[in-house]
Amino acid sequence: MRKSLYIPFFVVMFVAVADMAMAQARIARTEFLCYDKREDAKRDIRTQIDKYIDIEPTLQFETSEGSVRAVYEQKVTIPASWTDYNSYLHVENVGADYTIFINGEQITKPIDRFTPSEISITPYLEQGENTVAIVTVEEPYMSTIAEDIKSATQPKFENCYIFAQRKLGIYDVNVRLLPDSLDRFAQLRLDVAVDNSFSTDENIEVGYDIYAPDGKLMEYSVNRVAMSGFSRDTMHFSPWIYHSNPNRWSPTNPKLYNLMLYTKRNGILWEYIPMKVGFSEYGYNESGEITAFGEPIKLNKKTYNASADRATTQKEIKALKAQGINCLTPTHPQPQWFYDICDSIGIYVIDCAAISSPTKAEERGVDGTPANAPWLVEDYLLRVETMYRRAQNHVCIIAFKLANDISGNGYNLYKAYELLKSFGDSRAIIYHGADGEWNSDIE
């Protein structure tokens, strides 16, 4: 193993061209997998996904040279059948800040240890054997942004994987079940971003079906879209879902609809994406209260992060709910199954980006608090957008926090607030450290 492949990489990290490529590698979108069969999608059977590889790299060496602390590698064989697919690397539970190398080439800037990340690796893979390296790093500015946040307790590299998705397929999903204008029943608001990574014009069919909590089929549709080469388009579905008011989601009535998305090409079903959807509408009022269906919610909150595994976390959340806790406030983005548990058990969540900088919170000059250090704005925006995109479709989430409560304020958190507002979400954006400034909907 030649350490020189990894040790000096920060020398070129801030070259403009390298920055652009690295920024394009990491993406922010809903966390999902594509299954080959409907039944496997419903039961989350990943072993049957043809193009899915678990990632658990082994330690190659540790060092204190430069910013690198350790290098973990795994050999991955990419067959010729992946040619017409886009490949993504999902990373979480590294236990340290890290960057990604593919075949000796650095493809990401440093990524914080607290936010599960998805990275587009298609341009960097070769047919045959490839080397995927997760390189842990220690950068002072990274630790300054995330002071006092503790690392996740899940096993190292748990839920890290590579999966390949067809180059003509679903790129992202935004879904809501909201009341109609007269409050009679629900309307499904389903936006499906479709991506064509081929250079040629292509046709694809995108379909869905949605089932009520009692298993009854409520609606289905299949729409065809013609796409130009190297393009992305969004398909909008907005059917009425009748007889839905008894299924309004709340901690006392945590009922979920089952939504299945799928794609077809030339009459052949390609991929399935399962989702759980709850019927609710969140907002906030002038009194600084979070609302559900226009009515204030009385919250009994507790700071809680996921435990070592899903079963333990589910048991602990049930115990908290039995004690009268109805809202959890994690300190950073959680594993996907954490939000699934909260959806199904019935407990509110105020999600939070992995930002905590109390030490220099009062130093409001430029480069005083990290929140007012413009050269860090990209890191702030990535953390906030990834937090939002990953979990945007979960009904348990009633608001989003820009940062932990005492993290300074300034340019970076102003831009983060503007970014979240631009998504058009009715849920409150909260930052108690705003101290009366405009970048918080609730004081």
What is the element layout, followed by pairings?
Blueprint: H1 16-25, E1 26-27, H2 38-43, E2 52-54, E3 58-62, E4 68-78, E5 85-91, E6 98-102, E7 105-106, E8 117-120, E9 128-137, H3 140-145, E10 161-166, E11 168-179, E12 186-196, E13 202-211, E14 217-227, E15 231-237, E16 240-241, E17 257-265, E18 268-277, E19 282-284, E20 290-292, E21 295-296, E22 301-302, H4 310-322, E23 327-328, H5 336-345, E24 348-352, H6 377-391, E25 397-401, H7 411-422, E26 428-430
Parallel strand pairs: 22-23, 23-24, 24-25, 25-26
Antiparallel strand pairs: 1-8, 2-10, 3-4, 4-9, 5-8, 5-10, 6-7, 6-9, 11-12, 12-15, 12-16, 13-14, 13-17, 17-18, 19-20, 20-21
Helix pairs in contact: 4-5, 6-7
Quick recap:
With 443 residues, this protein is an alpha+beta fold. The chain has helices at 16-25, 38-43, 140-145, 310-322, 336-345, 377-391, 411-422; strands at residues 26-27, 52-54, 58-62, 68-78, 85-91, 98-102, 105-106, 117-120, 128-137, 161-166, 168-179, 186-196, 202-211, 217-227, 231-237, 240-241, 257-265, 268-277, 282-284, 290-292, 295-296, 301-302, 327-328, 348-352, 397-401, 428-430. The model is unreliable at 9-17 (pLDDT under 50).
Describe the structure.
The chain folds into 3 domains: 164 residues, Jelly Rolls (Sandwich), CATH 2.60.120; 110 residues, Immunoglobulin-like (Sandwich); 152 residues, Glycosidases (TIM Barrel, Alpha-Beta Barrel), CATH 3.20.20.80. Helices cover 16% and strands 34% of the residues. Strands 1-8-5-10-2 form a 5-stranded antiparallel beta sheet. Helix 4 runs parallel beside helix 5 and helix 6 packs parallel to helix 7. The chain starts with 15 loop residues before the first helix and ends in a 13-residue tail after the last strand.
